[in-house]
Amino acid sequence: MTALNLINVTLNYPDGEGIMTALDSVNLAVQPGQFISLVGPSGSGKSSLLAVAATLIKPTSGLVMIDGVDTTALSEKELAALRRNKIGIIFQQPNLLASLTAAEQLIMTSHLRGGSLRAAGTRAAELLELVGLGGSSGKRPHQLSGGQRQRVNIARALMAQPKVLLVDEPTAALDHERSESIVRLLREVCDEFNVATVMVTHDTEFVPLTDAMASMRDGVLAAPVAALPSLGFR
């Protein structure tokens, strides 16, 4: 079953006396374990696509299918439950709570879903180990580097074992070495958890670490093409 499927999605915004089309009949299907990079100039519609795919914004027309569920037919309460259980979102800025340790950042997300604290603690420890922070679970955000905070952000998004992982410019605030390590980690996560992953990125250098690249311009999405291998990647 396709994990994420956008079918003829159009998103219009009021713009003065007219209408701006942020997404124009967009079609995108992402399979479990497939890693898609999404590129395009600023204002092309990439952020709008992520917001619609995350069910944070309802499209003007078209269908948004998550794990076979037509999200456009759901109530706000049902959408919130679907996001908690099936969608992991990794924002450009980790937005970690200053008072919580790395482990507590993850455990809190499980608590909000009503999960067992003991089970959440176990999973948080496993995920922090997976992202290379097994020895830093007790550290607070100010004690972590930018790359480490982004790793906590990734681990937190995986707590609910999502079907879809949506990633917005994860390397924007990182240097080259840390950027590459984060994209490689996302590649490992995609493979390890068989999660459909869409990553908006301006770092086309790291596209070869993904399975395919889709490009946007003026709200129009070109069909994904296979990411060509590059020396030093994959």
Automatic annotation (TrEMBL):
Family matches, as Gene3D superfamilies = P-loop containing nucleotide triphosphate hydrolases
User: What PROSITE patterns does the record point to?
Assistant: ABC_TRANSPORTER_1 (PS00211), ABC_TRANSPORTER_2 (PS50893)
**Key words, A-Z:** ATP-binding, Nucleotide-binding, Transport
One annotated Gene Ontology cellular component of this protein: plasma membrane
Indicate yes or no for the key word ATP-binding: yes
Which residue ranges does the record assign to the ABC transporter domain?
4-234
Q: Which GO terms describe its molecular function?
A: ATP binding; ATP hydrolysis activity; transmembrane transporter activity
Indicate yes or no for the key word DNA damage.
no
| The protein's name in its UniProt record | Putative ABC transport system ATP-binding protein
